[in-house]
Design a protein that fits this description.
The chain has two domains: about 140 residues, Cytidine Deaminase, domain 2; about 220 residues, 3-Layer(aba) Sandwich (Dihydrofolate Reductase, subunit A), CATH 3.40.430. A hairpin with a 2-residue loop joins β17 and β18. By secondary structure, the protein is of the alpha/beta class. The chain is about 30% helix and about 25% strand. Strands 13-12-10-8-14-6-15-18-17 form a nine-stranded mixed sheet, with helices on both faces. A five-stranded mixed sheet has the order 2-1-3-4-5, sandwiched between helices. Strands 7-16 form a two-stranded antiparallel ribbon.
Length: about 375
């Protein structure tokens, strides 16, 4: 049975440690979402010898990070006695092995957590596995809460989203100071807004998602490749998905072309069209290098965004990057399908085309972070999709 700590002094020390871990883990919130922010520490004789944090989506969880740091500390493994974690260790294998398996490989005799997994499919399972193996498990209920450090994870595991899951959507765009996504003609060749530092950041962001979604208008206007280049990881090139209701993109679009260098990589190109569109055009796009899927339309006659997200989920996409123009961006935002934003504001006034300024009111965002990136300013936040 899960125990409650009864030493007030030790409980206060552990509570302070858990708060420190939660605060530091929260700094990785935009890199790990939709996963929770988690920190862990290994103790030996009451002394913290190692800490670890879940730092990016798809990467090692906090517990194995802390255990590896403990191995590198020089403290003999037989002296490790307690693992402190801000959230119940996971008990199933996903992108990484189950953390309970990693813990059971050590001689740790006690695990203290701040909170149980909120997902009803897993809640309590991790602690039960540890307890059945003879490890003493304790829940320090007065510790930090997910509602403070990881409200996005509570949204991800909410019942309505579990019942009909869809990928976590990150909307990324670059804009001028007035919110236009296209700069003045005399700036950045009339195309580029972001500085080199920001462009490098985007390559790393692309490496962290399963798919990049754009619209046919962006393909016709900007002719992007949607590839991964250094400092991103070309070995993790996501699928490139174009929403193209009428199969209208040019057959010579760069997103359809083979990639000629080993320093650049692109995942498969999928064209999502309205079901039953022009069969000859369908065949031509396939011959040009794309894969084409026909989905149902929405009330306006465009490809349904909900059907697109269902389709992506069924093909294993869990974290998706939205890189497109104002029309498709606004549609995703209006449908409340955007979970997270990263917005680069360049060092330029004015611009051409519609503005995204109406979407930038403070009441739309949670856990907002404003930071510099070279000469640009960056806004990162979770989108408040309620009310």
């Amino acid at each position: 049975m899960t125990q409650t700590l009864c030493n007030p002094t030790r409980e206060a020390d552990l509570r302070n440690l858990l708060q420190e871990l939660a605060t530091e883990a929260e700094g990785y919130r935009f890199e790990v979402a939709p996963n929770p922010c988690v920190g862990a520490a290994v103790l030996a004789g009451g002394r913290v010898i190692a800490r670890g944090f879940h730092q990016h989506w798809g990467g090692a969880h906090a517990e194995p990070q802390a255990l590896q740091a403990a191995r590198e500390s020089g403290v003999p493994e037989e002296d490790w006695d307690t693992l402190v974690v801000t959230l119940e260790p996971c008990s199933t294998e996903g992108k990484t092995p189950a953390c309970t398996d990693e813990i059971l490989k050590t001689g740790i005799r006690q695990v203290v957590v701040s909170e149980l997994d909120p997902d009803p499919r897993h809640r309590g399972a991790g602690l039960a596995i540890l307890e059945n193996a003879g490890i003493t498990v304790s829940v320090l209920s007065a510790g930090p809460k997910l509602s403070e450090s990881s409200p996005h994870f509570l949204s991800w595991t909410a019942l309505e989203r579990v019942r009909r899951p869809r990928p976590w959507v990150i909307a990324k765009w670059a804009q001028t100071r007035s919110g236009q996504l296209t700069p003045p003609e005399d700036f950045g060749d009339g195309r580029w807004i972001s500085c080199e530092d920001s462009l490098a950041e985007v390559q790393r962001l692309r490496s962290s998602v399963d798919a990049i979604v754009t619209g046919s208008g962006t393909v016709r206007t900007d002719d992007p490749r949607m590839t991964i280049r250094l400092p991103g990881d070309p070995s993790k090139a996501p699928a490139r998905v174009v929403l193209d209701t009428k199969l209208s993109i040019p057959l010579d679009a760069r997103i359809l072309q083979p990639i000629a260098t080993s320093e650049e990589a692109g995942g498969p190109t999928w064209i999502i069209a309205h079901m039953g569109e022009d069969a000859a055009r369908h065949r031509a796009l396939v011959e040009a290098g794309a894969q084409v899927a026909g989905l149902k339309g929405d009330a306006s006659g465009h490809v349904s965004l909900r059907a697109t997200l269902d389709w992506l989920w069924d093909r294993g996409a869990r974290r998706v990057l939205l890189e497109c123009g104002t029309t498709l961006l606004s549609s995703f935002l209006k449908e409340r399908f955007v979970d997270q934003v990263r917005i680069y504001t360049g060092d330029v006034n004015g611009g051409r085309g519609p503005s995204m300024a109406e979407w930038l009111t403070p009441d739309r965002f949670d856990s907002r972070l404003d930071r510099p990136s070279g000469s640009d300013s960056v806004l990162e936040a979770f989108v408040r999709n309620v009310g």
